[in-house]
Amino acid sequence: MRLLDRYLLRELMIPLPYCLVGFLVFWISADAITELEDFREQGMVFVDVLEYYGTRLPEYLVLLFPLVLLLALLYAMTTHARHQEFTAMRAAGISLWRFCLPYFLVGFLLSLLVLGLNEGVVLQTKEHAERVRNRRVVTEEPGDARWTRDLRCHNEREGRIWQVRAFNLDTGEMRDVVVEWQQPDGTPALLRAEFGDYVNGAWEFRNGQLWHSDPEAAAPIQAFTELRVEELRDPPNVLRSEHRVSQMDSFRRARRVSLTVAEIRDYRYLHPVLSDRERALLDTQLHARLAQPWTCLVVVFIAVPFGVASGRRNAFVGVASSIFICVAFFILQQLALGLGTGQHLPPLMAAWSPNGLFGLVGLGLAARMR
User: Fold this and answer.
1) DSSP code of 24?
2) pLDDT by residue (tens digit) across 164-208?
3) Which helix (H) or strand (E) holds 328?
4) Which of 9, 54, 293, 298 could, after both became Cys, cross-link 111 (CB 3.0–4.6 A)?
């Protein structure tokens, strides 16, 4: 069997890179055409555009792996079916699921790869791509990174309120920051500073004042040029999670998997008590983040019945039918996310039902084959 498995994998690995490169060229070209005017307005040169799309490559791979795997599988399997190789295997006593085992292995490994890229790479590369895109844009804030304005973060668990006029999403640097919190003895404290930065596990502020009582009733007890405050234990990633979740307020954004597991965890730490809407949003995003990578495995279940059954006469019908089913799958996936976020479906069902439904469709069609 090892020889057969190697043969099937080899035949799959031939069209896979060609499909991947083709899809990448098409996807990047289409995106570049629509963004060309914006690139010009932002002052980007050719090298910047190349770096921008090179940096976003992991994000594109995550999106394209299911489609690429589907087309490569259909090409390889219809080729085997056209040469009656599957018929010969079954005549030799090899079951359908056994000779398709290498395909499921590839789908499983790609699903794990997508899961790892989503959690460990895609967010960082998207942020770096935004820095590349905005590096030549002249802004009111110094530097070439992205700034968000008027950030407010309430750490309900530990009673801290942050109000920041300008927050650097990439470095965590702050401009015009106000922090209110309760000290261990219950005394209120308030800090105002022109600048703030997170250095070696603690916040350091410059050019500000610190009160340990009502700021309206007493002068600041300390005016400082530099101050390190160890008790403010909200790192920049926690503040970023507040910003990211606050952007998830539209159906267009909510039907996309935009939050990582780490960001959802950080936001839940800040807000132990959530509204029904926030809970539906976060739970749907969490389950969707875990369910989305397994799309690669689902497309194998969809491809098997069409690819194995396809011969000389019905190869086109099989390919077209499976692609149509996959398009319906992706549409249902986005619709279910929107319904889950809008509290019309339980989050678990919204995230996992497309995988389960279309996986069962593939199993049912394969079971009918003789």
Assistant:
1) H
2) 998 887 778 899 999 888 877 777 888 899 999 888 888 889 998
3) helix 315-341
4) 293
